[in-house]
Inverse folding.
């Protein structure tokens, strides 16, 4: 965190100054480790073993926050008798189909409270079979709320053998300190110190926070890493409370915003799912499958209809299902990696790359570049001539002679982009806070904002339409924004106001609770409704922090409804009283009959803790006055996920796809549902291969930014970190004859790259399973050109294309490699070297 | 100013004479006349750092239509005026001399860049979108309506503004393009 989010780290140091214990769990010793109380080196790719052992420690020692767990989680819920755990099936859960490598989650569901009461329609429980698994499941994860029975059978004593609490106990029983020692390389004494500290800093008077970044997500089990942390935090009562939580430190200025208002294939704005072919034929069928009916997703009809009205305006009517049919349909995985394979195969003809540099920034660089070379046309919009724009003249494949510029038919348009100070608009930072940026100067020359580009491109496309039926969604699109200045820049405030939404009177709405399903309201992203409340750009608010409370509610605007902490109703006990005075945050004011406190309550303001839903209630009315997790179907925090995951209702440790070690926990070595591509462009290192004996992991440096387009080009930053390097331990350096300051070549089945050698005790050799495991760390900021003041080989060329089955993120943080002294060969000899490694 | 007076103002002489070199003895007439760029700016824009997702406040100082300095915003309750090395260097992101400000075009099988007028480039791109969309249009897939094109894809970075992402998703969806992705998955 001190390396990659340095200014955010000041708050960790503030906490430390107040007595907080800071543990840093990371394969590397970094600036964060230097400031932490304890650094815990770990083998990359083994975190679920550690988190599972912490869960086991809490459960077996009776350290859970029982009152919180009983009231706010699904610990007491009873799961179907059909369910089989990894304990029963040697690393698989029930429902796995080996042929399609997917799970049917039917057996993971709750047992209904009353005999014969069917589970609610929709989501996981609708349809079935393989087609359903491919079209409606993994693509949908991360959108809407997963469906579950809102009133399952419960055992408040937590003793029923099929209640979630007992399932959890059994499932995690084999995650022991000894296993942590053997799998993670963390000595038992270090584990016990960590476990004791976490338990001591949880409960009524204390909370523990977990902070993570892509070190937890870029794995074939990435989603289950986060699930593990969620289970631990729920058991300890650390969710929805000040100083608690699981904090995702996102890596880019508006990466949160890019998810909320997604340029992602599987979701519409506000996490509504994109429609799937065959299962979402009409609006009604879509809504039946889209999300849960209970909890705040129960208003999904209002959210979607308001979005459709925002896009298609007067053309969207009740008679035509508000133009629902204008939405294109998905048929499975349309993610960025399958898109690149589509470019190689010739299905994808044209590609827009906007402020991104896949030629060096995405896993399997060679595959990315072969994809670019397979296009008919490519539009690159950036502030610099990144490698994605120049691959056809200076890419590594040109150097090896695999490709010649004359043979590459891709037509390339490079359009220079405006910088962050040359346009206005909002970023959403990592705590969901929208901050408006004022424009300082006009962009130079041909530089334009992406807002300008897409607005004017849309206008031109609309001028070229025919009367054809396929053009109707474009013809009817609302595409009229005020233009300013000589370059006719569209008004970003007008776009933000459209995102916020308007009511029947045309005035800006102030809350998503005002959205209607009858077409009388418009809203471009329901969770952002309120950012333009009272016709004021709330994201532009800048009341100085020093003049506000610690929560600082008048700086920018956080979604939803300016709530700074999600699920904060859990900061009070079931009766609405703070768990302790020390940890008071939001509570029920009996006299005034409303929730109040330091933050905007994440609960209906006047819903009493005594409220109990009537039978058949839907949406928020189905959430009781004691259920804080209001987006969930049952209002509970899910220790066990009865639906919504593609690889199991509980986290299980699986080895990375490429790993030098066996899985000591189960016969099942790697995640059985992980997404593998059988492609010659991007082969895999065999698991346990002696040819690739070392763990390879990638990381960032303080002085650079991702693939380097915004940092290698700056002389100040280039001077601070001038050269691509790899970091190895003194033991590995001795084993391989690597010299500090000299050169090394790192080899995988995909590529061989060269880097300067940094021999340091910061990457420690780990002793486990009777052998020594060495890890090689490489920053991924360099590329061969990119207008960089400094250049170097691209680390992502080494990485495999193998994905998490829930969110299709690549395993960029744990794979295998070989390392040898000296520079890599060039030309044909480089290909021969890689070929030699593939053969053996 | 007489020679004696001039020599008396010379910092090194004053320091040799025993004055504290870390205080007034370090000052010269020139340093007395120096004014920070932040004090002489024509305007100051309130902005946000474009690198990581902490969202540090930035103050962007402008003189004569040029960015002259970028500083941390002390009012921000998030950053309290601090910036990291990247945020501190961000003025160079805007003002560095090597920045490309012209449209460049590489024709199929070409070996070099050519200049292209921006308006012309926009027209050419629009032509390609319309033609590719029509040619690769898929009304149904395995008998089910899909109304889409798999011929056009997009990958965006996560420094895009919310408003930009919104127009992208809106236009692409109306076009029927579904392979719309972002750094957020990577």
């Amino acid at each position: 965190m001190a390396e990659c989010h340095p200014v955010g780290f000041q708050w960790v140091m503030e906490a430390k100054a107040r007595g907080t214990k800071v543990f840093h769990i990371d394969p590397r010793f970094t600036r964060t480790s230097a400031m932490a109380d304890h650094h815990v080196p770990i083998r990359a790719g083994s975190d679920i073993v550690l988190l599972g052992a912490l869960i086991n420690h809490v459960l077996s020692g009776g350290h859970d926050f029982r009152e919180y767990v009983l009231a706010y989680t699904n610990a007491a819920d009873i799961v179907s008798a059909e369910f089989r755990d990894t304990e029963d099936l040697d690393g698989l859960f029930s429902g796995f189909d080996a042929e399609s490598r997917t799970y049917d989650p039917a057996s993971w569901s709750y047992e209904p409270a009353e005999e014969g009461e069917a589970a609610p329609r929709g989501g996981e429980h609708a349809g079935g079979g393989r087609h359903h698994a491919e079209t409606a499941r993994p693509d949908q994860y991360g959108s809407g709320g997963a469906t579950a029975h809102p009133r399952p059978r419960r055992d408040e004593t937590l003793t029923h053998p099929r209640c979630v609490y007992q399932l959890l106990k059994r499932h995690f029983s084999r995650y022991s300190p000894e296993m942590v020692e053997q799998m993670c390389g963390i000595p038992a004494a270090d584990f016990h110190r960590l476990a004791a500290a976490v338990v001591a800093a949880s409960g009524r008077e204390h909370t523990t926070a977990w902070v993570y970044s892509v070190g937890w997500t870029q794995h074939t089990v990435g989603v289950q890493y986060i699930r593990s942390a969620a289970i631990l935090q729920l058991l300890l009562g650390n969710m929805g409370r000040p100083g608690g939580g699981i904090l995702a430190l996102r890596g880019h200025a508006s990466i949160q915003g890019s998810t909320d208002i997604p340029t992602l294939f599987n979701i519409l704005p506000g996490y509504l799912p994109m429609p799937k072919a065959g299962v979402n034929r009409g609006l009604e069928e879509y809504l039946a499958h889209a999300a849960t009916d209970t909890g705040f997703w129960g208003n999904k009809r209002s959210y979607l209809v308001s979005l459709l009205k925002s896009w298609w305006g007067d053309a969207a009517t009740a008679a035509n299902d508000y133009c629902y049919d204008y939405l294109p349909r998905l048929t499975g995985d349309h993610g960025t990696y399958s898109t690149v394979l589509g470019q190689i195969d010739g299905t994808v003809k044209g590609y827009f790359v906007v402020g991104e540099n896949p030629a060096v920034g995405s896993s399997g660089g060679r595959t990315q570049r072969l994809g670019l070379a397979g296009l008919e046309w490519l539009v690159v919009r950036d502030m610099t001539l990144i490698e994605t724009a120049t691959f056809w003249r200076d890419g590594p494949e040109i150097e090896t002679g695999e490709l010649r510029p004359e043979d590459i038919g891709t037509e390339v348009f490079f359009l220079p982009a405006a910088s962050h100070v040359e346009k206005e608009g909002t970023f959403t930072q990592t705590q969901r806070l929208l901050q408006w940026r004022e424009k300082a100067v006009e962009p130079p020359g041909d530089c334009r904002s992406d807002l300008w580009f897409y607005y004017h491109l849309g206008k031109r496309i609309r001028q070229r339409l025919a009367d054809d039926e396929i053009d109707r969604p474009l013809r009817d699109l609302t595409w009229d924004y005020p233009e300013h200045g000589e370059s006719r820049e569209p008004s970003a405030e007008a776009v933000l106001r459209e995102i916020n939404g308007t009511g029947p009177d045309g005035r800006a709405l102030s809350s998503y609770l005002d959205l209607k399903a009858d077409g009388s309201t418009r809203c471009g992203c329901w969770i952002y409704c309120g950012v333009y409340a009272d016709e004021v750009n709330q994201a532009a608010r800048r009341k100085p922090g020093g003049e506000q409370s610690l929560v600082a509610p008048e700086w920018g605007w956080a979604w939803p409804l300016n709530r700074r902490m999600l699920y904060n109703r859990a900061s009070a006990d079931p009766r609405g009283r703070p768990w302790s005075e020390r940890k008071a945050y939001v509570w029920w004011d009996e006299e005034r009959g409303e929730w109040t406190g330091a933050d905007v309550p994440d609960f209906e303001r006047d819903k009493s803790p005594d409220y109990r839903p009537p039978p058949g209630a839907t949406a928020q009315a189905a959430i009781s006055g004691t259920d804080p997790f209001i987006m969930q179907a049952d209002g509970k925090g899910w220790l066990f996920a009865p639906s919504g995951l593609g690889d199991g209702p509980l986290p299980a440790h699986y080895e990375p796809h490429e790993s030098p070690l066996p899985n000591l926990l189960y016969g099942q070595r790697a995640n059985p549902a992980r997404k593998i591509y059988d492609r010659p462009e991007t082969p895999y290192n065999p698991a346990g291969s002696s040819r690739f004996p070392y763990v390879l992991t990638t990381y960032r440096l303080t002085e650079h930014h991702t693939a380097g387009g915004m940092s290698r080009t700056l002389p100040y930053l280039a001077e601070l970190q001038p050269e691509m390097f790899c970091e190895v331990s003194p033991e590995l350096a001795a084993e391989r004859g690597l010299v500090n300051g000299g050169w090394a070549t790192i080899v995988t089945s995909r590529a061989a790259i060269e880097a300067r050698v940094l021999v340091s005790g910061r990457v420690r050799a780990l002793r486990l399973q009777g052998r020594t495991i060495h890890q090689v760390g490489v920053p991924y900021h360099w590329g061969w050109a990119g207008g960089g003041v400094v250049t170097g080989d691209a680390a992502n060329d080494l990485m495999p294309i193998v994905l998490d089955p829930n969110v299709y993120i690549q395993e960029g943080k744990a794979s295998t490699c070989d390392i040898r002294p000296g520079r890599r060969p060039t030309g044909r000899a480089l290909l021969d070297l890689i070929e030699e490694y593939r053969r053996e | 100013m007489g020679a004696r007076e001039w020599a008396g103002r010379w910092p090194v002489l004053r320091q040799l004479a025993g004055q504290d070199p870390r205080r007034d003895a370090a000052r010269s007439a020139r340093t007395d006349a120096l004014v920070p760029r932040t004090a002489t700016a024509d305007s100051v824009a309130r902005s946000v750092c474009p690198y990581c997702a902490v969202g540090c406040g930035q103050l962007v100082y402008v003189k004569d239509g040029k960015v002259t300095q970028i500083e941390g915003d002390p009012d921000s309750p998030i950053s309290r005026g601090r910036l990291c090395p990247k945020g501190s260097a961000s003025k160079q992101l805007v003002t560095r001399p090597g920045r490309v400000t012209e449209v460049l075009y590489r024709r199929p099988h070409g070996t070099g860049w050519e200049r292209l007028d921006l308006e012309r480039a926009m027209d050419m791109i629009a032509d390609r979108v319309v033609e590719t969309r029509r040619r690769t249009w898929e009304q149904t897939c395995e008998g089910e309506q899909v109304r889409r094109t798999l011929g056009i894809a997009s990958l965006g970075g996560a420094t895009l503004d919310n408003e930009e992402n919104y127009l992208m998703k809106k236009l692409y969806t109306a076009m029927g393009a579904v392979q719309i992705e972002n750094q957020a998955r990577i």
